[in-house]
Model the fold of this input.
Amino acid sequence: MRRRSQNADHKKHVAPDSKVPTRGQIFADSTAPIATAGVIFDDGTAIELVEDQSQPQHLSLLKFDGNIAEVSAQVSHRGQVYVPLKLDPSVRHALRLPQNYSPCGSTSELFGELVTLFAKVCDLAEDFRQLLAPSFLRLGAQT
Done:
């Protein structure tokens, strides 16, 4: 008894003029944009989700390669195009995203800024403020 091939079964469920891509075609087609909320590549390039400055309800992507930052509705890296992930409106409304980028400086500068901020908002002695600041740096690194 002869078995029908899986391919024959597949063909009977697809209209003859249908242009349904095969699984291999989907993965081989690197021209299709990839929706992302962010990714860090092995070369250090990072792509992340940001708010579109011209249309606050829309999203853009920020691509940073360590030297140059680019904000756009779509970015490309190594020949692959990336677009912002579509978010449910309720999630988008609750999510607070950056609108752009700014240089962050060194860790010691960030530490100094945190100690100064604590001096403004907390009634703590200098010694305690300096003990508290590294905790916030560690918390930021974990998120």
